[in-house]
Design brief:
By secondary structure, the protein is α+β, with helices and mostly antiparallel strands. The protein has one domain: Roll (CBS-domain), CATH 3.10.580. It is 48% helix and 19% strand.
Length: 142
């Protein structure tokens, strides 16, 4: 099973913000779209970072009064783990677990193709396991 299968079922909409924006803009975007992370883009819409709820909470803990005025670039995670559409779901799950990330942009040839979350990955693995179990039950019954 590949990342492409997840994107085909969930879609390829990715919410992005420019790195020059403010943290308040990111909070508003996360709330409006009910998402846990936003991809941060630079020149030519290249992926330069990712900003998650976790990143925001950590900065709010450091400076509650001034955090929302911070530039996104000061708060975002600059080391972005990405995958491609032909990355296996098992590989993505392993990388997300090892890197302790919950969101992974799908990037090919420098172009943002989508984003997947750990929830998307777990859902796909459950579906895959259920299909395998059904196939085994059918095989045993025949």
């Amino acid at each position: 099973m590949y990342v492409d299968a997840i994107l085909q079922s969930k879609g390829v909409v990715v919410h992005t913000l420019p790195e020059a924006g403010r943290l308040a803009d990111a909070v508003e975007t996360l709330n409006r779209h009910n998402i846990g992370a936003v991809v941060i883009t630079g020149v030519g819409d290249s992926v330069v970072g990712i900003l998650s709820e976790r990143d925001i909470v950590r900065h709010l803990g450091d400076d509650p009064a001034g955090a929302l005025d911070l530039p996104i670039a000061a708060v975002m995670s600059k080391r972005v783990a990405t995958c491609t559409r032909d990355t296996t779901v098992a590989e993505v799950m392993e990388r997300m677990t090892n890197l302790r990330v919950r969101h992974m942009p799908v990037v090919e040839d420098g172009e943002l193709m989508g984003i997947i979350s750990i929830g998307d990955v777990v859902k796909r693995k459950i579906e895959e396991t259920e299909l395998e179990a059904a196939a085994l039950r059918e095989y045993i019954a025949s």
